[in-house]
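Weekly puzzle thread! Below is a chain. First person to post its structure in token form gets bragging rights.
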Amino acid sequence: MGLIGGGTRKNLAQRRDVTLLWPPREPGGYSLIVDGSAEVAGAGEETVRLGVVPTRALLHREADPDSPRRPRDAATTAWCSRRRSVPCARVQTAAIASKLR
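Winning reply:
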């Protein structure tokens, strides 16, 4: 993933679960949200390299305000109810974790 500082090292000592967010490349595009387990991949005297093993991922896009509303399916509603910080408009899950390794 990249080099990390002392604060992140301390946080990793207590909790390894992380969520990474890649914003859309263009307006109206998809964000990539990846949950994973962080691992210290290489430690030098002054630097530490962080690796993340993905456990699940999804693509997310805000709904077009002009699009007709459609009912959410049960899986999307359940996923969103557990993650209130993520807007649930047009959430599309993606089995892409294996592509990130």
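Puzzle host: Confirmed. Bonus trivia for everyone else. The mean pLDDT is 70.
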